[in-house]
Amino acid sequence: DDSSYMLGALSSLFAAVVSGLLPVCTRKSKECSWTAVNHVSSALSALVFTPAAFLVLFALDNTALHQTLSSFGTLEGGDESMSKWALLVSATLTGFVALALQTLGYQCEEATRASMMTI
């Protein structure tokens, strides 16, 4: 489907542009504590950006609500449900720690040098 491909390609391009701004924005916030930057980032992600992304997804795709609910259902069912939750929590914690270390690194180093470490 051409429209699905185009949406994916544009989303990837937009993500690349925005992720390129991350070191610059983080370096500009070096006066703030890295914990404040991370907690505000996580709060905005959980309370603003994720719900907005779900709303856009639901508006663009009629099957998105069913797909979302069925994916939550896979976490609940089966004998392995605790291991699925453990993996989800582990991935979340790993991402939070990685973001914390990245923020601290960007605040301590020049943005151009720190950006090289992202690759």
List the helices and strands and how they pair.
Layout: H1 2-28, H2 34-60, H3 64-76, H4 81-108, H5 111-118
Walkthrough of the structure:
- The two termini are 32 Å apart.
- It is built from five helices and no strands.
- 87% of the residues lie in helices and 0% in strands.
- The radius of gyration is 18 Å and the shape is globular.
- Helix 2 (34-60) packs across helix 4 (81-108).
- It is an all-alpha fold.
Unreliably modeled segments = none
Query: What is the C-alpha radius of gyration, as a whole number of Å?
Result: 18 Å
* Biggest beta sheet summary: none
**Secondary-structure-derived class:** mainly alpha
Shape category: globular
List the total number of helices: 5
Q: What is the string of helix and strand elements?
A: HHHHH
Number of strands: 0
Helix content: over 70%
Mean pLDDT: 83
Which percent band covers the strand fraction?
under 5%
Quote the distance from N terminus to C terminus: 32 Å
What's this model, at a glance?
This protein is an all-alpha fold. Helices cover 87% and strands 0% of the residues.
What are the key terms here?
mainly alpha, 5 helices
